[in-house]
Model the fold of this input.
Amino acid sequence: MKRVAVLVSGGGTNLQALLESEARGENPNGKIVLVVASKPGVYALERAANFGVEGTVVARKNYADSEAFDAALLDTLQQHNIDVVVLAGFLSVLGSRVIEAYRNRILNVHPSLIPSFCGPGFYGLRVHEAALARGVKVTGATVHLVNEECDGGPILLQKAVAVQPGDTPEVLQKRVMVEAEWKLLPKALAMVCNDDV
Done:
């Protein structure tokens, strides 16, 4: 069974979807054993505790530079014998040292249909603001493997979501989460844990 760590920066709604999927037995070859938050006090740590999953904090601001942060994060993952890493709203960029240690075993969910509205600077509400400003009629989410290029790793799954008249960035963000992210991320994690990738 693959030991999974989920990295988060906020409330952890994608984490909740993963935990609920696991509780339903949808990933028999994987188990979430650790949640790593990028800052203390985030609700995702409480979500983890509610499912009996250990939570810890590795905050970028506590380290002199990105290399020291990467070393601390990698040390935390290796101390817990992690096999697979999921970025679920983790707003810190992983360096090459972490990526190389978990090559083809780091998943990220991005709130657009890559290659649209992705890359440096496109995260959170910014993605949905850009989609609405461009006037697209369809957006969605993508789960991809992480490599050294921001949002450039191989795509595992995508799902389209319609843009509705009157959508605000916040309304569109919620629809993309509910209709795409919360469905795709557990499926993609199961694919990696089953060695189907």
